[in-house]
């Protein structure tokens, strides 16, 4: 429970001045959060790298970094793939903003 409160606090700071993300139904969306699961959403790979960088900075400030772990380099995010739709927590999320499928 404490981790969830801590991560929510960090995410609010990260997103405080963030204007990126995608627009669905007239609302700007840059993340989906449920319990201890967070999904970041960006309009481009470059935007995702920038958002991950801000998240890493804020996380490190509160001791949530993995300083002594085998850290993955954010800059090598080339494995990311642009998709037309995906299932998240049982819901189909699609790039047109529709949920009719």
From TrEMBL:
Residues 1-93 form the Reverse transcriptase domain. PROSITE patterns: RT_POL. PANTHER family: REVERSE TRANSCRIPTASE DOMAIN-CONTAINING PROTEIN (PTHR47027), RIBONUCLEASE H (PTHR47027:SF8). This is Reverse transcriptase domain-containing protein. It comes from Callosobruchus maculatus (Southern cowpea weevil).
């Amino acid at each position: 429970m404490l981790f969830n409160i801590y991560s929510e606090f960090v995410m609010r700071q990260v997103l405080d001045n963030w204007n990126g993300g995608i627009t669905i139904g007239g609302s700007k969306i840059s993340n989906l959060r449920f319990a201890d699961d967070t999904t970041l959403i960006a309009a481009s790979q470059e935007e995702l790298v920038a958002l991950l960088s801000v998240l890493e900075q804020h996380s490190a400030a509160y001791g949530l970094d993995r300083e002594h772990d085998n850290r993955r380099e954010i800059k090598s995010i080339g494995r990311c793939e642009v998709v037309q739709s995906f299932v998240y927590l049982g819901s189909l999320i699609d790039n047109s903003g529709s949920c009719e499928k």
